[in-house]
C-alpha cells in the first residue's frame, strides 16, 4: 500500500517562531503537495513539487516556503508563524497527471499561540 | 472563483437511508471527478471516481451520477451505515491540470 508519512502529528508553536513540517513518501511518485485544511474551506493548495530541488506555488503560498531535497521528502516551512496559520496540514503524493489518485498523509495539526 | 462547489456543508441521514451529496463545477474542460472520504484524524482517501465520458459509476453502495451538460454530479450512498459518517470531498481535474477540491460535506448517519 502506498504510504505518505507526516511528522509531527501535532505541534504547538509560538507566534513569530519557525515551524517545519515534514513529509516522506514511499510511492515513488514525482509529485508532492502541501494542503491546508480549515473548517469550511476544504483543502487549499499551498505548494507543490514535481521534481527534487524544485517547488511551485499553489493557491495560498504567502507565509509559506517549501523544500524538496529528494523525491521522497517534501517540507513545508513557516519562517514566521502567525495565528492565522493555525490549521491542519496535509501532504499528498501523486503521479502528476490531473486525472490520477492522490495519496494523503494523516495530517499535522498546527496550533500557533 | 471556486472551481468546485458542494451544495451542503453538512448532511444528516438515518441508518438505511440513501445519502445524496451534490457537487457542481465551473470548468467544462474537467474530465475526471473523484470523491474523497475523510474520517476524523485521518487524511482524505479516494472513494470512487468517474470520467466525463460516463454518466454513472457504481461501486458497491456508492454511486456517482454525472451530468455533463449541467456541470454537476452527485454521490449516492445507498443503505447508509454509521460507519459512513465522514467528510466527503468532491474534486475535479483534467489531464493537463491539477485537481481542485470542493469544501466538503460532513455526513452524519444516525443509528
Computed CA radius of gyration of chain A, to the nearest angstrom? 13 Å
Structural category of chain B is: mainly beta
* pLDDT < 50 runs, ≥5 residues of chain A: none
Write the element-wise H/E pattern of chain B from the N-terminal end onward. EEEEEEEEEEE
Distinctive features:
heterodimer, A: 113 residues, mainly beta, seven-stranded mixed beta sheet, four-stranded antiparallel beta sheet, 11 strands, 0% helix, 54% strand, globular, B: 111 residues, six-stranded mixed beta sheet, five-stranded antiparallel beta sheet
Write the layout of secondary structure elements.
The complex is a heterodimer of chains A (113) and B (111).
Chain A: E1 4-7, E2 10-13, E3 19-25, E4 31-38, E5 42-51, E6 54-57, E7 65-67, E8 73-78, E9 87-94, E10 103-104, E11 108-112
Parallel strand pairs in A: 2-11
Antiparallel strand pairs in A: 1-3, 3-8, 4-5, 4-9, 5-6, 7-8, 9-10, 9-11
Chain B: E1 4-6, E2 10-14, E3 19-25, E4 32-38, E5 45-51, E6 56-59, E7 62-67, E8 72-77, E9 86-92, E10 100-101, E11 105-110
Description:
- The complex is a heterodimer of chains A (113) and B (111).
- In chain A, the strands form 2 sheets. In chain A, strands 2, 4, 5, 6, 9, 10 and 11 form a 7-stranded mixed β-sheet that branches.
- Chain A is mainly β.
- Chain A contains no helices and 11 strands.
- With 111 residues, chain B is mostly beta strands.
- Chain B contains no helices and 11 strands.
- In chain B, strands 2, 4, 5, 9, 10 and 11 form a 6-stranded mixed β-sheet that branches. A 5-stranded antiparallel β-sheet of chain B has the order 1-3-8-7-6, with no helix packed on it.
- Chain B is globular.
- The termini of chain B are far apart.
- Chains A and B meet through strand 5 of A and strand 4 and strand 5 of B.
Q: In summary, what is this structure?
A:
Chain A has 113 residues and is an all-beta fold. Chain A has strands at 4-7, 10-13, 19-25, 31-38, 42-51, 54-57, 65-67, 73-78, 87-94, 103-104, 108-112.
